[in-house]
Structure formats: structure tokens, C-alpha cells
Design brief:
This protein is an all-alpha fold. Helix content is 74%, strand content 0%.
Length: 464
């Protein structure tokens, strides 16, 4: 089969996917993919919730004597994000080589086993090593989830789909906050409460792995690999189910936008066509994580620093955490109507403003209200930037290019925890949020000046 014929077949697969209505079958695929993000989020948001329990067990301390001390909470945060960096920088290309579905399932099992091992460690080094290993699996999983969803859903519903996926993925935030609140100070079967919080995530991840075996491979990826018979079979099954649910013949596909089926490499992300996007996303990701995790990972610790009792901080964190799954549901109403790049910018502006306001609060009600608004901005930034970056590259390099750009957010988070701990110790809570606001200003400048528009465009159109 010559290249022109192969390319036209891949383009037709894309056109057929883009004309599908969002019926129950398509949403069920989104739900199954979202289950992967569910446990990835659980793993990441463990940090803030179990920190008081680890302080009580005298494993970690809120701050350290030296900037890079390994007995402080910052080292626990750094271990996860170093693992995330390794996973996103060095292993996401496997999803372009072996397929979205294969890497998707393996990375979840990897995370489940490593997290279970971490729950039984008794030293800072033991916990940090297994946290790092688990982070590698989570790093691969997060990028694969974004790539998978962007290739499965029609172009006009990508914004709404990512918002719903993030809503499902953020349900663990109040769950883990609630478990930490309820289990704080307890030791069922002789295990500290925070260890049970960790184990819940690892066991659940292994159970969901079985459910996700029902997922098909991405037809876009199969077609781009030249496996057209497999792509046709997968797509035909999807179309048949959708048409039966739709109750009438499917719309005719639009004229396909061509995309080469040549094998891609990371070097292509630095070609003249994609270089500015790669640099823009890398810089934006490096700084956006300062705002997102600077708040998410440190809420209980920051509240303790403001003189609030540990049980109250966990209660406040639990209430605030409900904004994570709820706001993306609201966001699904406008996700495809406001240009994606401006959603990223507006959410970063909100993070900067509400963060500074949060630092001034000392009473319960204002803390909860402003903390909820801050969390809403976090959720908005998450679903908008995950959607946005998954749209900017062609199928042949999507996972590895997004993985490269996204990995810089993981690397910055390795050091952000140490920097925030030092700022908190030396200058207090307000200084932490001024630091975050400065980082958000850099993200806004990058996206506003160099980010292309993507709403309601075919992935192939955006790629060119």
C-alpha cells in the first residue's frame, strides 16, 4: 500500500470519528478512560491529606533545617514529582509505539503495586523511593489519558469531554480528604490511619485495571500505524453501537484533513512547524504547577501555619475539596464556547488573585469560601490545559510531544515543594501566595502570546 493511500485511509478514520454524536457508547468509553485518571489524582492528592498523619508518626516534618532536607514533607512531594518527571519525559513515547490501550493498563498496575509497597514503609527514604516508583507509572498514565480521550471523541465535544473526565478524575480529592479526616489519629489493625488511606488507592487501581480491559485501542492510532484492518474493525463496532443508540443513520463525514502516517520522533516536536508550541507549553507547564500544587499539596500545612488545629484543617480541606469534581461539571457548559487558550489564562489569573486573598483569612467561613474559589480555579486550569496541550500535535508524536512538554511541570514540582517550605518558614503564608502569583503571570504571558486557537477544529487542522 503506497503512502498516499495509507494516509487517505487514516484521514477517513479521523473524519468518521469526528462526525459521531455523543451517545451512551462514546460516553462509556470516556468514563472507562477517566477511571485511570481517578487513581492518578488519588495518588497525587494523597500528599496534603496524609501529611498530618505522617507528622504525627514522626516520619516527616513540615519544614526542614536545610533547603533540600530529606526528612521534611517537601522530600515526599519531590519524590512523587521526580517519578512523574521520569515517566512523562522518558516513557510516554511508549504510547506512540505500542498503543494507548496497552500502556494505559500497564501503567495502572505499576502504580497500584508501588503504592501498596509504600504504605508499609517506616522510614523517609523507604517511603520516598516507593513514592518515586509509583510516580513513574502515574506520569505515563496521565499523558496517555489525555492522548486517548482527544483521539476518541468528536472535535466539537473535546472541551466538554475533558471537563467531564476531570470531574470524574477529581472525585478522589474529597474522598481522600474525607478518609484522612476520619482516620486521623486511628490505627486499625495496628496500621496508622494514613497508611490505610494509601492502601485504598492501590487496591482500587488494581480492581479498575480489570474493568478497563473492555477499552478498544484508539482507531486514530491504529490507522496512523498503518494497521487499517484493525482500525476499521474497532471503528465499525463503535459506529454500529452509536448508530443503534442514535436511532437514525449517522451524519456523513466531512472531507478529511490529511495527516502523514510516517513514524514520528521527539525531534519533530522541535521542527519549525512545532518548535514554538513545544517551547510555549514547556515553559507554561514549568510554572503552572507552582500554582496548582502549591495550593493543592499544602492546604492543611498552610492552615496549620496560620494557627488552626490539625483536626480543623482536615475538616476545612475536606469541604474545600468538593470544588474539584463539581466545578468541571459547571465548566462542561462553557468548555467548548470559550477559546481554550483563554480558559487557561483566566484560571491562572484567578489562582493568583484568590491565593493572595486566601493568605489574609483567619476565620473559618472566609477560609472555606476563598479556598473553594481557589480550588475552582485549580480545577479549571487542570481540565483546560490538559485538553489544550493534547490538541497541539499530530497523532504520530502526540504522546511523546505532550509528555516532553508536560514533564517540565513534574520537574518544577520536584523543587517547588522545597521552595515553598523555605518561603513558609522564613516569610509566612502571604509570601507563598505572592510566589504563586508570579508564576501564574508567566503562564498567562506564554499562552496569551504564543498559544494557537483550537476550539472545534479537527486535530489534523490544529496540527497543521
Amino acid at each position: 500500500m503506497d503512502i498516499e493511500t495509507s494516509t487517505s485511509q487514516a484521514a477517513r478514520v479521523t473524519a468518521r470519528l469526528d462526525r459521531l454524536p455523543m451517545t451512551r457508547s462514546v460516553w462509556s468509553l470516556v468514563f472507562l478512560v477517566s477511571l485511570g485518571a481517578w487513581f492518578d489524582t488519588y495518588a497525587i492528592f494523597l500528599t496534603g491529606s496524609i501529611a498530618p498523619g505522617m507528622f504525627a508518626d514522626k516520619i516527616f516534618t513540615p519544614t526542614t533545617v536545610s533547603l533540600f532536607g530529606f526528612t521534611g514533607l517537601a522530600s515526599f512531594i519531590a519524590a512523587l514529582f521526580l517519578g512523574l518527571f521520569i515517566g512523562t519525559m522518558f516513557f510516554t513515547h511508549l504510547a506512540d509505539r505500542f498503543g494507548r490501550r496497552t500502556v494505559f493498563t500497564i501503567s495502572l498496575v505499576w502504580f497500584g503495586i508501588a503504592t501498596a509497597a509504600m504504605a508499609f514503609q517506616t522510614t523517609p527514604n523507604g517511603i520516598n523511593i516507593w513514592r518515586l516508583i509509583a510516580g513513574i507509572g502515574v506520569g505515563v498514565e496521565l499523558v496517555t489519558v489525555d492522548t486517548y480521550i482527544s483521539e476518541l471523541v468528536p472535535k466539537r465535544f473535546r472541551g466538554k469531554t475533558f471537563a467531564i473526565q476531570q470531574s470524574i478524575g477529581f472525585i478522589p480529592v474529597p474522598v481522600v480528604a474525607f478518609l484522612a479526616w476520619m482516620l486521623n489519629g486511628t490505627a486499625p489493625l495496628g496500621l496508622s490511619g494514613w497508611r490505610w488511606v494509601v492502601l485504598v488507592g492501590s487496591v482500587g487501581a488494581l480492581l479498575v485495571w480489570v474493568v478497563r480491559l473492555r477499552l478498544p485501542e484508539s482507531p486514530r492510532w491504529l490507522a496512523q500505524q498503518g494497521r487499517h484492518d484493525e482500525a476499521e474493525r474497532v471503528l465499525h463496532r463503535i459506529e454500529a453501537r452509536v448508530e443503534a443508540e442514535y436511532g437514525k443513520p449517522l451524519p456523513e463525514p466531512e472531507p478529511p484533513a490529511l495527516e502523514s502516517d510516517a513514524r514520528g520522533s521527539l525531534a519533530e516536536a522541535f521542527s519549525p512547524e512545532y518548535r514554538s508550541r513545544t517551547i510555549m507549553l514547556s515553559v507554561a507547564n514549568f510554572f503552572q504547577t507552582v500554582g496548582f500544587y502549591g495550593f493543592a499539596n499544602w492546604v492543611p500545612t498552610l492552615l496549620i501555619a496560620k494557627g488552626i488545629h490539625v483536626s480543623q484543617t482536615l475538616e476545612y480541606s475536606f469541604i474545600i475539596a468538593f470544588a474539584y469534581p463539581l466545578f468541571p461539571l459547571l465548566g462542561s457548559l462553557f468548555a467548548d464556547h470559550i477559546e481554550r487558550k483563554w480558559q487557561v489564562c483566566l484560571s491562572c489569573l484567578g489562582l493568583a488573585v484568590f491565593g493572595v486573598i486566601f493568605s489574609w483569612q483567619t476565620a473559618a467561613i472566609p477560609i472555606i469560601i476563598v479556598g473553594t474559589l481557589q480550588t475552582m480555579m485549580n480545577a479549571w486550569l487542570s481540565f483546560s490545559i490538559h485538553n489544550y496541550q493534547s490538541e497541539l500535535f499530530p497523532t504520530r508524536i502526540r504522546a511523546r510531544a505532550v509528555g516532553f512538554a508536560y514533564s517540565w511541570s513534574r520537574l518544577s514540582a520536584v523543587f517547588t515543594g522545597f521552595v515553598i517550605a523555605a518561603i513558609l518558614q522564613q516569610f509566612g503564608v502571604l509570601a507563598v501566595f505572592i510566589f504563586i502569583a508570579g508564576a501564574m503571570a508567566i503562564v498567562i504571558a506564554c499562552i496569551a502570546l504564543a498559544g494557537p486557537k483550537t476550539n472545534r477544529l479537527a486535530l489534523e487542522q490544529i496540527a497543521h
